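User: Hello, beginner here. Can you help me understand these amino acid letters and fold codes? It all follows right here:
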Amino acid sequence: MAPVRLGLRENLVQFSLLVAVNVFVGAMVGLERSTLPLVGEDDFGLSSSAAVLSFIVAFGLAKSFTNLAAGAGAERFGRRRLLILGWTLALPVPLLIGVAPSWAWVVAANVFLGVNQGLAWSMTVVMKIDLVGPRRRGLALGLNEAAGYGGVAVAAAIGGVLASELAPRDVLVGGGAAIALAALLVSALFVRDTAGHVALEQREGAHDHEERPPRLREAVPEATYRDPALRSCSQAGLVNNLNDALAWGLVPLFLASHGASAAEVGLVAGLYPGVWGIAQIAAGHWSDRIGRKPLIVVGMLLQAAALGLLAASDAALGLAAAAAVVLGLGTALVYPTLIAAISDVVSPIARAPMVGIYRFWRDMGYVAGGLLAGLSADALGYSGAIAIVAALTAVSGIWVAVDLPERQLARGRTASSPAR
């Protein structure tokens, strides 16, 4: 057996496999982005935005609590086992959508999808951090998130094109089944666990060798409100996914209400995660050099500006596409950098639980976003709902600017140690 070593080059094969798996993770969600809101209106006759966006609320709740459980259980059960379980639970998603006699079945399918995403994406994130060690953490996360959201973008764009020629529900069923089966086979046959890399980093770093993973009851308050670095990242993650929920569920309806075709909806739905996915590679690497805080603050403010442009666009395709590009750039600066910032300030043994709690709060943004966007769109119209989310995103960026300490790498600091 080859010796365990840390580093991107030293673990290139396994790292590349995990990148491929995360493309599949993103593609599962991407298929829904350009088609499922339209399926709600066309196949099930839903007229309320809140009713259509209920699938995002179900997805967000399931993914949030799964992130929490995955972070707490990663050390006990092993990362690889949870990854395989996540893909096993993806298999019912296309089946439930395909046979759904009512929208409630689609909502139930998105509960399974949320569990799949919580397990599979959480484990690919943590396993990549395990492999590369502390020096290339931002780059590793940039590559991970680029792969995932590249998968989202390609699947959203292709799904929109196919939905203009075929029944949108058929596109979801066929594509979802193929993705889930392929990812399950790759994960089960080729991916290896990274427990040895965690142990090595814990031994080699300036960490307490006797440290144990923090208990959930200790870790939750630390990551939620006690530690300035962790709470700043948690709230920014929540608001980031709040506006992502709006982009996922409300923007297709906004464009379609102004006469956009399924292919045009797919174009805008694909541009946003496409730019987000590609730009994250540079953003993650950049954050290793200049620190995390500047990128997070600028990224949140760019997102707010993009949503403001979208709210004022009257759904003109050119302006909507420009807003999608700027939104993607802003999100690229934020998304991998937040997880890197979390990983900087906790020890390797505490990494999975703390990242799990961060991802819990981040994905609760889907719940908040689905409810806020749906209810405010019903009350104020699409533009009003988008403007509200733009304002919240700007406030979140200001919070980070005021509250997040400058970059600090974990050097013997445990989950319960105070920030310096």
Remarks:
- The longest helix spans residues 348-380.
- The radius of gyration is 20 Å.
